[in-house]
Amino acid sequence: MKTSLPLLLASAGLLVGTAAQAHIGASGVGPAIEGTSYEVQFTVGHGCEGLDTYRLRIQIPEGVTSVRPMDSAFGKAVVEKDASGNVKSITWTRASATEVLAADTHAHRVALRARMPNTPFANVYFPTTQTCLDAQGQEKTVEWVGTSGDHGGHGTEDAGSAPQAEPAPAVFIYPARTPGWNKYTVQEHVHDLSVFKDALIVWSGKSAYSANPVTKELIASEPDTTPLTEIHPGTEIWVKY
Fold first, then answer.
1. 136, 53 in Cβ contact below 8 A?
2. Which sign, positive or negative, has the C-alpha torsion 195, 10, 215, 12?
3. Rounded Cα distance, 15 and 13, in Å
4. For the segment 48-88, what is each residue's pLDDT rounded down to a tens digit?
5. How far apart are CA 77 and CA 42, in angstroms?
6. For the chain, does the N or the C end have fewer beta carbons within 10 angstroms?
7. If you average pLDDT over residues 144-149, what whole number do you get?
8. Predicted TM-score (pTM) of this structure
């Protein structure tokens, strides 16, 4: 840990961290902390090839527990459980086909509250099936199930390669933290350090990262310090919140 950067403790006004975004985005208020309850909002930004969304089925990943759907203007939530009573999926469906809009003109939002798994520094993916309805009552389905972490990669595959799956909405899980310095050993490969945008600074050896522009400039000007751009598994880091 290194604390010699001037004005470090004075830097403030950082944005609150949010979950990873996909075409069906998953977000919440503040960071999702391992082992704690968190409200996840799923935003459906568009329908299917000009058609409005009729049904949304969200699968609940392993380790996500105490799941409870939230009321939604979109439609009634139906909970599916396995033989052990664990929630496996939640489906929101319009009350009737007559509620489906004539065109893809609206965004929709549904939400659930659940206890996050103890998997810090990793994304938790919620595979989602989006069903739209045309004027003749025919359904068109889009599967948002990709878990590669590359939410911008579909459509860029090489000729002859298999098409990449549309990205599943994901929530990034943070470790438990206390105000001030926190020491962690990261067991996942963290490519996108913007997940630390609610932190004042992140240190790893002689490298550092901050989302705050002032602190970022100080890191760049600090002797023997390099910008931290990614974190490899097994790396020890210090994070100041």
1. no
2. positive
3. 7
4. 999 999 999 999 999 999 999 998 888 889 999 999 999 99
5. 13
6. N
7. 87
8. 0.82
